[in-house]
Amino acid sequence: MDCIQAQGLISAALDREPLDAALLEQAKAHCRTCAQCGDFVRALTVIQRAPLPAPPADLPDRIMALVRAEAAAAEQASAAVTEQAAEAQALEAALDEVAPVPDDETDPTTLSALEAAALAAKARLAETSAGSRITLSAPKPTRAQAIAWIAGVAAVLVLVVVGGALGIMNSMNSRAAMDSQSAYNIAPAESASAPLETGQYGADAGAPDVGAAATSSPMQDTLAAKSATSTVLFVTYGGFVYRQAGSSKPSLVGLTQTGSLDMAFSAGAAPEMHDVYSAQGESDAIYIANGDKSYERFELVTRSYSGKTYVLNSSAIGTYGGWPTLPPGVPAPTSADGSPVFTKDGVDGLGVTVYRMPGANANAGIAIGPGTPTTDPVAGDPNWTWWTEKQ
Amino acid sequence: MPPLTTDDAALLAAARDGDLGAFESLVRAHTGAVYAHALRFFGDPTAAEDVAQEVWIKVYRSLSSFDERARFTTWLYRITRNSCLDAVRAGKRRPVPVEVVDTVAVPGDLADEVALTTSVESAMTALQPEDRDAFSAVALFGLTYVEAGEQLGVPAGTVKSRVFRARRALAHVLDLTAGGA
User: Fold this and answer.
1) B179 pLDDT exceeds 90?
2) Model confidence over B40-51: pLDDT tens digits?
3) Less CB within 10 Å around the terminal CB: N or C of chain A?
4) H or E element: which one contains A36?
């Protein structure tokens, strides 16, 4: 056994790697008699014995203070969602209570009060929970009965009340408009406005129902087509999103490896590890090895707002054609207006509404809702996205 | 090398259920490794502190996405390494340059832990980045060669070679003549 072999075995043994016991004994015996290997073993002893450089004593406390603040913020956001869900549930229950047919069906006073209460409840329900819109798009039998009852009695009233027919019809038209605006989906299927809004800002914000879009408006069709899968290849590296830039390098010259990435270059291909490189002078781009001789260029996805540049953060994009999503720790809003997670901050140069965390300013990061125009850096993304200021 | 916490999985499970005390235990058990990796990467205590804080916030935010089949330290190493690389890529920090170090004296009294640490850390600056990376994965975070290879994107045999090369370089640089090792 030579020195290199002996030292290699001793090194591997320190790392608790499984070794042949007899070989290890030979290595130890060699080190006992070889001065050079003896020094090597003594050096390893010193290295093992040396304590790690100690972080400041209060570092764990500072870390935990940050974590607790993060936890409190998440809890607050969660509580807001729970509160809204509870309110929505209570309103829904109230609506069900309002629905039963009164004893005196022809009493216009009773009818008016019931209708007003029902409509108010609907409006509040739609305002407080976008998620409820989806749930309510398939009304429960009790609500359907109530609506049928309201429509029936309204028709009777039209016939009965002399001279008031026109006024009542106007009133009903107003209510229909309210239903449509609040996306309370009791309108017939061909009423496009409510499903469109649901498609844009549904609580789940997932892939829209393309089948349903077939019977909807052209705007819906466009939205659904954009939302299916991305035609641009996005990857997440170091938490930041890069998009394929359409050019590549034929060799490694000028590139330095910075890590690796689990991703696929084509649809249907299984994700696999690819080496990631950076090039000098190209701080906003990475190159990803595609095979042995091609290095595909990906550019950092950025946007401008209030004179600052923001970079897109996202959870890992698992598959080819996947869209950027909110990063871990940033919950998705439940409403089209970003609440309760985000609040409106302003509008950027593209006319896109920009949101921020409540109680924070845009320096802490900005959020963008789904359904952005085609000029947007992530046009067609059906998800909310989160952007942080470029350092 | 810090003792490996044997109940990381239990602490992690509790932390995922919202137990901040369990999370704090993980922080206290492993911040030394995170800080040491960052310090060796940047050579700057302030940068190392910043990265350590960033790493744990990322860990906290990602608790729900942690693959329970993996080992916590493997995950922690990946986040730590990526955080260092991200800071460089974002232009916020520069990695410590590799220094040509002839020898570093080992203190005569090995019980002088502060002096001993200073000597070893000085010797670390002589390591090539890829060797230091592999050494960090194995010696600081306790990864196996296979686990480290998966994180670094190289075969386990390459990790073994890099760790061995790192140890030989350290042994070469550390001047044991003054010490009693």
Assistant:
1) no
2) 999 999 999 999
3) C
4) helix A35-49
Residue with tokens 């990475």: A286
- Return the C-alpha torsion angle A248, A252, A254, A255, nearest 10: 80
How crowded is residue B130: how many other Cβ atoms within 10 Å of its Cβ?
A: 16
Nearest to B62 by CA among A267, A67, A347: A67
**C-alpha to C-alpha distance for A242 and A315, rounded to whole angstroms:** 12
Identify the segments of chain A with pLDDT beneath 70.
Answer: 78-85, 87-88, 91-92, 94-228
Inspect the interface and report whether the beta carbons of B168 and A7 lie closer than 8 Å. yes
User: pTM value?
Assistant: 0.50
A35 touches chain B (CB under 8 A): no
ipTM (interface pTM): 0.90
Please, what is the Cα angle at B100 between B88 and B119, to 5 degrees?
90
Neighbours of B34 (CB within 10 A): 29
The answer to whether the beta carbons of residues B176 and A43 sit under 8 Å apart is yes
Is A166 at the interface with chain B, CB within 8 A? no
**Cβ within 8 Å, pair A46-B32:** no
**Cβ proximity of A356 and A342 under 8 Å:** yes
Tell me which residue in A43, A63, A238 faces B89 most closely, judged by beta carbons: A238
pLDDT, tens only, A260-292: 788 888 877 777 778 888 888 888 899 998 877
